[in-house]
Specification:
heterodimer, A: alpha+beta, Rossmann fold, 2 domains, six-stranded mixed β-sheet, 8 helices, 34% strand, B: mainly alpha, MetI-like fold, two-stranded antiparallel sheet, binds adenosine-5'-diphosphate, binds magnesium ion
C-alpha cells in the first residue's frame, strides 16, 4: 500500500497535447476517482501511472519511488480494464494465476491465494470455466479477482462498470466500495459517470481537455464548484445555468428580476451566469422559504420518489424538484420558490466561480 | 410435382443463372476425374488403341515399386518441411510487420514481403536457379564470408537438393501464412497484451499465452490448406530440380508427370495421380470439417 504523487504530468501525441500538467496527490489508502467527459485525458493519465503509456513530462511517484522509467510489472500496480481483457483461452483459475505463475510463486501458495480471493468474490464455482462461459458481471468479478490476487500496492480501474447494465452496475459499485473498505489499497478509478464518482470517491478529480478543473471530496465538488464546467458536470439533473446581469439589488434575468445577496466582486451591470440546483427550486406549495417566481410548467419527469418539474422562465428552461405525489400537471401556471442562499454565480468569460 | 415446379419458378432464378457455371465446372472436373480413375484400371492407355482391362494390377505395381515409396517419403518431407517453414517464417514476419512502426514504412514492408507470392512459379524457379548456381550470388557470398571453401551446386547435389528446394518453397509460400496471420494478429485486442504486460509477461510469455491461443483457429485452418496445396505442388519442383538429381527430390507429382510424359506409361501415371487424389481428399475433408466447426 502506497501513496501516489502525480506531478506536472504532460502527455503529447506528436503535435497533439493530451495532458497539460496534471497534479494529483493521493494519500495511502485513498479512493481517487478521475471523472470528466470522453476524451478529456482520464485514461491517458491512468495508463501513464500504469506504465502502459510513456511520460512526455513530469513525474509519477508510487510509494517513495519515481516510477517513470519502470516497466508496468515493476510498479506494484494491478489494473482492471473496461472490457476486462481476460485471457479467453485460460480458465478463470488460470486467468487469476497467470501473474503469480510468472513470478514463480510456489503452486500451493498460488492455489491458496486464489481460493481466498475466489471466496471473497464468490467465484469459487466458476474457477474451471473459461471467460466465454461467464456473464458480464461474472467476467467483471474475475477481472477484479485477477487484480486482487497479486496483492498490489495500487489498483487502477479504467471504466470497469461501463459495459454492465444499470442494475448490475449498482451492485458492482457497492461491491467495489466494500472491497476497498476491506483491503484499504490506494485506488485510482476512471469513469465518465458522475454518479459513480460521487458514490465511490474519497477524492474526485474533475478533468476537462487535459487539465484539472477541480479536485476535492465529493461534497466539495458538488456543493462548492470552482468553475462553471464543474457545476454543470456534477449532479443529475445538471445545475440550472442561466445568463443574466447584475443589478444593485440582485440579478436581472430576461423575464424577471430576482433580489439576492451578490458576491462582493460583482458590480451592477456585470454579465453573469446564475446557477441553482433543481433541489433548491421547489413549488411554493412545498413550503420552502425563498424568492417566489411564477412560471409555466412544460413537463413532469417522474422518478418515483420525486418528480422533476421542467418549466420556462422567459427564453430559458429550468428544472425544479418536488415530491413524488405532486398534483402539478403540465401547462399549469405554478409559483416556485428559489432558495437563493444556495445560488452560484460564475464569470461567463473565464468560467470561474464568483464568490 | 407441380409444387416442385412452382417452387423452382419462385426460387430457381439464381440457380438458373448459376447453371452455365455449374455445367462447365462439372464437365471440367468430373470428366477428367472419371477418365483418370478409368485409365488407372487399364494397361497401355492412350498409346494403344485397345487398352486391356487389368483391374487393380496397376495399384499393386505401384505399391511394390520402391520408387513410389521413396517419392512418398520425399513428398512427406517436402510437404511437412514447406508447411513448417511457411509457418515459422510467415509468423515471424507477420509479427514484425505488425509491430508499431511508421505507418508508411509498415505499408512498404508489407507490400515487399508479399512479392514472392505474386511471381509465377517459372520466374521463381529461374531466379533461384541463378542464385543457387555454383557461380551464383549465394555461393559467392558464402565463400566470401568464409562459410564454405568451394562453391556448392545446391540444386545438383543429392545431399543438398532437398534443402535447397525447401528453402525455395519456404520463400515462395510464406506470404500466404503471413497475410492470414497478420489479419489474425490485428484482431487481437490490445488490452490483452497490456493486461499480460502488467501481469509481468515478457515477449515470449505474451507470444505464448496471448498471441498463440488467439491465432489457434487460424493456424489450424491455414496450415491444413497449405498442406493440401503443397502436397500436390508440381511446377516449383519440376522447374528447379525436376525431381533430381537422380530421384533425390522426386515427389509424387513429379513422378506422375515423369511416368506420363517422359516414360509414356499413362496407366501408371493415372494410378499415381489417383493416390495423390485420395490423400488430398482426406486432408480436404479434414479442412472442411474444421471450417464447419468454426461456423
Ligand atoms: N494513441 C493515441 N494517439 C493519439 N492521440 C491519442 C491516443 N490516445 C489518446 N489520444 C488522445 O488523447 C486525448 C485523451 O484521451 P483519453 O485519455 O483516452 O480520454 P478519456 O478521458 O476519454 O479516457 C484524446 O483527445 C485522444 O484523442
Ligand atoms: Mg477512456
Amino acid at each position: 500500500m502506497s501513496k501516489i504523487e502525480i506531478k506536472k504530468l504532460v502527455k503529447r501525441y506528436g503535435e497533439h497535447q493530451a495532458l497539460h500538467g496534471i497534479d494529483i496527490s493521493i494519500p495511502q489508502g485513498e479512493f481517487c476517482v478521475l471523472v470528466g467527459p470522453s476524451g478529456c485525458g482520464k485514461s491517458t493519465t491512468l495508463r501513464m501511472v500504469a506504465g502502459l503509456e510513456t511520460i512526455s513530462g513530469g513525474d509519477v511517484v508510487i510509494g517513495d519511488r519515481v516510477v517513470n522509467g519502470l516497466k508496468a510489472k515493476d510498479r506494484g500496480i494491478a489494473m482492471v480494464f473496461q472490457n476486462y481483457a481476460l485471457y479467453p483461452a485460460k480458465t478463470v483459475y488460470n486467468n487469476m494465476a497467470f501473474s503469480l505463475q510468472l513470478s514463480k510463486m510456489p503452486k500451493p501458495e498460488i492455489a491458496k491465494r486464489i481460493a481466498d480471493v475466489a471466496e471473497i468474490l464468490e467465484l469459487t464455482p466458476l474457477l474451471d470455466r473459461k471467460p466465454g462461459a461467464l456473464s458480464g458481471g461474472q467476467r467483471q468479478r474475475v477481472a477484479m479477482g485477477r487484480a486482487i490476487v497479486r496483492d498490489p500496492e495500487v489498483f487502477l480501474f479504467d471504466e470497469p462498470l461501463s459495459n454492465l447494465d444499470a442494475k448490475l452496475r449498482g451492485q458492482m459499485r457497492a461491491e467495489i466500495k466494500r472491497l476497498h473498505q476491506r483491503l484499504k489499497n490506494t485506488i485510482i478509478y476512471v469513469t465518465h459517470d458522475q454518479v459513480e464518482a460521487m458514490t465511490l470517491a474519497d477524492k474526485i478529480v474533475i478533468m476537462k481537455d487535459g487539465r484539472i478543473e477541480q479536485q476535492g471530496t465529493p461534497d466539495e465538488v458538488f456543493h462548492d464548484p470552482d468553475t462553471l464546467f464543474v457545476a454543470g458536470f456534477m449532479g443529475s439533473p445538471p445545475m440550472n445555468l442561466i445568463e443574466c446581469f447584475a443589478t444593485d439589488k440582485g440579478i436581472k434575468l430576461p423575464s424577471v428580476e430576482i433580489a439576492c445577496d451578490m458576491p462582493s466582486a460583482v458590480r451592477p451591470g456585470d454579465k453573469l451566469v446564475f446557477g441553482i440546483r433543481s433541489d433548491d427550486i421547489r413549488p411554493a406549495e412545498d413550503g420552502f422559504e425563498g424568492v417566489s417566481i411564477s412560471a409555466n410548467v412544460n413537463l413532469i419527469e417522474q422518478l418515483g420518489t420525486e418528480n422533476l418539474v421542467h418549466f420556462s422562465l422567459g427564453p430559458d428552461e429550468m428544472i425544479g424538484k418536488t415530491g413524488g405525489r405532486t398534483r402539478i400537471t403540465p401547462n399549469q401556471e405554478v409559483s416556485f420558490t428559489l432558495q437563493m442562499q444556495h445560488a452560484y454565480f460564475f464569470d461567463p468569460e473565464t468560467g470561474r466561480r464568483l464568490r | 410435382m407441380s409444387r416442385v415446379i412452382n417452387g423452382l419458378k419462385e426460387n430457381g432464378t439464381p440457380y438458373f443463372f448459376l447453371l452455365p457455371c455449374i455445367v462447365i465446372l462439372g464437365a471440367l472436373l468430373s470428366v477428367p476425374l472419371y477418365k483418370v480413375v478409368e485409365y488407372s484400371l487399364y494397361d497401355n492407355v492412350i498409346v494403344e488403341r485397345n487398352p486391356t482391362f487389368v483391374g487393380l494390377q496397376n495399384y499393386s505395381n505401384l505399391l511394390t515399386d520402391s520408387a513410389f515409396w521413396s517419392a512418398s517419403v520425399n513428398t512427406l518431407i517436402f510437404t511437412l518441411g514447406s508447411v513448417i517453414g511457411h509457418i515459422i517464417v510467415g509468423t515471424g514476419l507477420a509479427l514484425l510487420v505488425n509491430a508499431e512502426i511508421h505507418p508508411r514504412a509498415q505499408t512498404v514492408f508489407r507490400s515487399l514481403l508479399i512479392l514472392p507470392w505474386i511471381f509465377t512459379a517459372v520466374v521463381v524457379a529461374l531466379n533461384w536457379q541463378l542464385l543457387l548456381n555454383p557461380f551464383g550470388v549465394i555461393n559467392y557470398g558464402l565463400t566470401e564470408i568464409g562459410l564454405i571453401d568451394t562453391p556448392i551446386d545446391w540444386l545438383g547435389d543429392p545431399a543438398f537438393a532437398m534443402w535447397a528446394l525447401l528453402l525455395i518453397s519456404t520463400w515462395r509460400g510464406y506470404p500466404f501464412i503471413m497475410v492470414s496471420f497478420l489479419s489474425g494478429l490485428q484482431s487481437i485486442p490490445k488490452e490483452l497484451y497490456e493486461a499480460a504486460e502488467i501481469d509481468g509477461a515478457g515477449f515470449f510469455a505474451k507470444f505464448w499465452h496471448v498471441t498463440v491461443p488467439q491465432l489457434k483457429p487460424v493456424i489450424y485452418g491455414v496450415a491444413l490448406l497449405d498442406l493440401i496445396w503443397t502436397f500436390q505442388l508440381f511446377p516449383l519442383v519440376w522447374l528447379t530440380t525436376g525431381g533430381g538429381p537422380g530421384r533425390s527430390t522426386e515427389v509424387l507429382s513429379t513422378m506422375t508427370f515423369r511416368q506420363g510424359f517422359v516414360d509414356f506409361e499413362f496407366s501408371q501415371a493415372a494410378t499415381t495421380a489417383v493416390s495423390i487424389l485420395i490423400i488430398s481428399a482426406a486432408f480436404t475433408i479434414l479442412y472442411l470439417r474444421n471450417e464447419k466447426q468454426k461456423i
